[in-house]
Design goal:
Elements: H1 7-14, H2 18-28, E1 34-35, E2 41-42, H3 45-59, H4 64-74, H5 82-89, E3 96-99, H6 100-117, E4 122-126, H7 130-146, E5 149-154, E6 165-168, E7 178-184, E8 190-195, E9 209-215, H8 218-235, H9 237-247, H10 256-274
Parallel strand pairs: 4-5, 5-6
Antiparallel strand pairs: 1-2, 3-9, 4-7, 7-8, 8-9
Helix pairs in contact: 1-3, 3-4, 5-8, 8-9
Length: 275
């Protein structure tokens, strides 16, 4: 059963005051909560995501009715994409166009920090092709020995129960265009997700580029891991359940100091990539 949230919890997670949420519901029918017999409202985490997306759409210049229409019309389009889910849940994360060689370097940095500092992390990887995973297989076997759960997505020929757990993604699936790494653990969390625009797969492997978003904000990393669990459940319910069980409690809303550090780190990598 989905987590049931009060309007105060939705306000705290989205940054939209409870009074404003009530006004949106009255005027636009959004967000539409379930009502308890007592009359109290209850919302789902997906509705929090939708509220955040509306806020981001308004900040981009859309009027409130148009922002709500856009979010309600596009929310289900991204359910099979880790990059899309993270963008939907955190639309304020601006994508950067990053060469694959730089993307792999960022991935290794996240993996190594996770291995060095995290205790029993939830570790998720999306590699597009089995041959790309094979190049990293030895590293991931080491990660899997200390992880609470380690799961990789790629176009594997068959599913396997050996660690890390491998989930087959058909070439037609949106996830087959994505490169991602998620490490969630107390004190050491990071997530990166990149989507390969059409035409990039025709370039030489070292020259391919991805639209990528990444974060070290624990609350956002939890969102990425939760999205990966949702995607895994669609492919293999038992593995999706293992990820969900390992996630633990949702982190408290991130303070301004953590968000500032995360924003600075993103800007630094953006400048280095441009250089």
């Amino acid at each position: 059963m989905s987590e049931a949230l009060t309007i105060s919890e939705v306000a705290a997670r989205s940054g939209v005051p409870a009074g404003t949420l009530r006004m949106w519901e009255e005027r636009y029918g959004f967000p539409r909560p379930e009502r308890l017999p007592s009359g109290h409202r209850r919302f789902t985490p997906d509705q929090v995501d939708a509220v955040r997306a509306v806020v981001a759409a308004r900040e981009s210049g859309l009027a409130l009715p148009a922002a709500i229409e856009r979010v309600l019309g596009t929310g289900e389009e991204r359910r099979d994409s880790l990059f899309g889910l993270l963008r939907l849940r955190r639309p304020e994360l601006a994508p950067e166009l990053i060469p694959k060689r730089r993307l792999i370097a960022l991935t290794h940095a996240i993996e190594d920090e996770c291995l060095a500092r995290a205790h029993a992390p939830v570790l998720i990887g999306s590699f597009q092709r089995e041959r790309f995973f094979r190049a990293e297989q030895a590293r991931w076997r080491g990660f899997a020995r200390t992880a609470a759960v380690a799961v990789v997505f790629a176009d594997f020929k068959t599913r396997t129960d050996t660690e890390p757990l491998r989930l087959r993604v058909p070439r037609s699936h949106p996830l087959s265009r994505e490169w991602a790494i998620v490490c969630l653990a107390p004190g050491a969390s990071a997530a990166l997700a990149g989507w390969e625009p059409p035409g990039e797969e025709d370039a030489a492997d070292a020259e391919r580029r991805f639209e990528a978003i990444w974060t070290v904000d624990p609350e956002l990393v939890y969102e990425a891991a939760d999205a990966a669990a949702e995607l895994a459940e669609r492919v293999e319910p038992t593995i999706g359940a293992r990820i969900t069980d390992a996630l633990g409690p949702r982190p408290a809303p991130t303070g301004a100091d953590v968000r500032a550090v995360a924003a600075l780190a993103r800007r630094m990598v953006s400048y280095v990539t441009a250089a």
